[in-house]
Design a protein that fits this description.
189 residues, alpha+beta, 2 domains, eight-stranded antiparallel beta sheet, 31% helix, globular
């Protein structure tokens, strides 16, 4: 029994070292933002495989057009007395389900909460394109952090992506096929 008690501190120490090494390795695994655009008519393909750590440094360094200091101006969007942050907080804790559905002769739009993420699905019947956007809540909240009503915080969103599992953020299918996703691979699938 005495030798067993002696071995327990060593076992605990070894376990702690192994756990720390595992966490350090997992934390050091780089995450990548991938973008692939394919034009079905011209057969042109554009691929981007960017480490998130590089994107975090590049985005605030670009001050051109509507992108300034890591934030992008989103046109004439105005919240007009609507607290977007409070709405996102409320949606985060709301039960999962379909919140908005719009169907007309030109488009179908669906906004829902699924698997703890905000999901937007658009079918444009005129152009025969489908757009699917999936935004993890942490990323959605980061997008509106430290911004004015007509800005999105890209720098904060990229930082938030570091903590999100492998996920497809945007998928467009039609004449042009677009996919934007995050994973730990340094090349496309």
């Amino acid at each position: 029994m005495k030798s067993m008690r002696k071995g327990l501190p060593r076992l605990a120490l070894v376990s702690a070292v192994v756990l720390a090494a595992t966490l350090a390795f997992a934390a050091s695994t780089p995450r990548y933002l991938h973008v692939r655009v394919t034009n079905l008519t011209t057969h042109e393909v554009v691929r981007v495989n960017l480490p998130l750590t590089l994107a975090e440094k590049i985005i605030p360094a670009i001050n051109h057009g509507k992108l300034r200091d890591g934030k992008v101006q989103i046109g004439n969007f105005s919240a007009d007395g609507v607290n977007v942050r409070a709405i996102l907080d409320a949606l985060k804790t709301a039960p999962e389900g379909e919140f908005v559905t719009v169907e007309d002769h030109g488009d179908n739009v669906r906004v829902a909460k699924e698997h703890g993420q905000m999901v937007v699905h658009v079918i444009d019947k005129k152009s025969n394109q489908n757009v699917d956007v999936t935004i993890p809540w942490e990323v959605a909240q980061a997008l509106v952090s430290e911004t004015s009503d007509d800005q999105l915080n890209l720098e904060a969103a990229v930082k938030a992506l570091e903590n999100v599992g492998d996920t497809t953020l945007v998928r467009v299918s039609g004449q042009d096929n677009v996919r934007v996703w995050v994973d730990s691979r340094n090349t496309e699938e």
